[in-house]
Design goal:
220 residues, alpha/beta, Alpha/beta knot, 2 domains, 3-stranded mixed β-sheet, 9 helices, 10 strands, 37% helix, elongated, RNA methyltransferase activity, RNA binding, SpoU_MeTrfase, Alpha/beta_knot_MTases
Length: 220
């Protein structure tokens, strides 16, 4: 964190936070409510604005041997979905999240809010070239599983004995054909009711948590 801007009201409500910031050497600057409104993207800002470094890291420091669970988002456009998946990945203990292709910027305000703090936990990297992202996962010893509603293999048929990278596609179009041809295995979530599909964030939660729980059970 480089600097913290706070309104008078927020300073009174969050004295401990300001003390921690000052002890860490972070400058704390007072601002008016009007200034807070201008700096924030929300309708009702909390009165605290921080200037921080970008959270994404170079791929070579993220996708390397030793990673056990990675989530890859391909061309995911909605920042709320991306942030929610990052939160899911964090909760499931994933090592990293890769935003590949034309995926949304993880620093987008809506993405940051949807991640609810999880943006700072798993390693985040952005790789424009989707094929390069998949190759980097494979080179790190990760088996790539592509979530696809029309796959032949169902989620409950998959074993999770090796490190895995889950690959999820665009909200409207799913994974491109070339990606499905590249991943090690395409996997679908079985539908037991009458719903045709699940949205991206829900599908990611089901797949990633199934993987995480199976891996932990196998390790005990």
């Amino acid at each position: 964190m480089y600097e913290l801007f706070v309104t008078e009201r927020a300073a009174a409500q969050h004295e401990r936070l300001l003390t921690i910031a000052r002890e860490a050497g972070v400058p704390v600057s007072p601002i008016t409510d009007r200034a807070a409104d201008g700096l924030s993207e929300t309708v009702t800002p909390q009165g605290i604005v921080a200037v921080c470094a970008l959270v994404d890291r170079p791929q070579e420091t993220v996708l390397k041997p030793g990673a056990k669970l990675v989530v890859v988002l391909v061309d995911v456009a909605d920042p709320g979905n991306a942030g929610t998946v990052i939160r899911v990945a964090d909760a499931a203990g994933a090592d990293a999240v890769v935003l590949a292709g034309d995926s949304v910027d993880p620093h987008n305000g809506k993405c940051v809010r949807a991640a609810a703090g999880s943006l700072f936990h798993p390693a985040i990297t952005r790789i424009r070239d989707v094929d390069a992202a998949l190759k980097a996962c494979s080179a790190a010893g990760l088996r790539t599983l592509g979530a696809h509603g029309y796959a032949d293999t169902e989620l409950d048929q998959v074993t999770f004995a090796e490190p895995t990278a889950w690959v999820f596609g665009n909200e409207a179009h799913g994974l491109p054909r070339e990606v499905l041809e590249t991943v090690d295995l395409a996997v679908k979530i079985p539908m037991y009711g009458r719903a045709e599909s699940l949205n991206l964030a829900t599908a990611a939660a089901v797949c990633v948590y199934t993987n995480a729980m199976a891996s932990r059970a196998a390790a005990t």
